[in-house]
Amino acid sequence: MSHSNPELPSRPHPSLSVDTTITSSNSIASGLSKSSSPITPSRGTTLGNLLLSSCPGKKVRLDGPIRGRSAVCRDLESDLRRMKDQGIGCIVCCLDDSEMEFLGAPWPEYERVTKVIGLDVLRLPTPEGLPPTLSPSYLDIELTSLIERYTLRGIPVLVHCRGGVGRAGVIACCWILKLGLCGWLDSDDAERTEFSLLAPPSESDTTKPNLSTLRLVEKVVSVIRRRRGAKAVETYEQAKFLVDYVQFLSRKSA
What we know:
CATH architecture: Alpha-Beta Complex
Strand order of the largest sheet: 1-2-7-5-6
Order of helices and strands: EEEEHEHHEHEHHH
CATH superfamily: Protein tyrosine phosphatase superfamily
CATH class: Alpha Beta
Keywords: Hydrolase
Number of strands: 7
GO molecular function: catalytic activity, acting on a protein; phosphatase activity
Organism: Moniliophthora roreri (strain MCA 2997) (Cocoa frosty pod rot fungus)
Protein name: Tyrosine specific protein phosphatases domain-containing protein
Region (Disordered): 1-21
């Protein structure tokens, strides 16, 4: 499948106000960490944006506001076409069939529209509040393919779950880590510490991360929270997955 390298608007389409651009489409090579980050784009490479969004076509609270939150009634095809118009080449969907059906965006219709308009879809079904069901190594395989096929060619990617905050935020964090956009580990920092980013570790935790790993994860999460919202990466399990992913990348690059 051939792809063009579209010029993105400086901010998300007003009708897709839920979208959050994580990086700009300007050349970022000069700002990349010079340490051994997992992927180092060639000098002058223009990276495709990563965007976060709630589920396209989402329909919730149609009987009226609940706890002060108003109804949402979006049109699936219109949302997907707007994404295509923004130059997005691939959507990463973190929902399973049952949750998509519940949200009013059934997978058969979603699949039909994306095929008609030429949008690729990568499905990573993930239970609410949890990290990807894939191991860090298998998620890395999917991310590597996604980055090489789209990001490094200047083609934007959009990630969504239900609200585009927790599960989608984890994928966005892994994308940033994979590209080394927040730097990489301090090689001289080997001090081990208790993992307590969101909650104390269980007694079954046997591999404690070092301070450098925790600092890197906290930095990436803070970037996503500033750009998307304070609730991005919502649970201890999601934060722990990011620690595991950093440790995997560290072992892989050793």
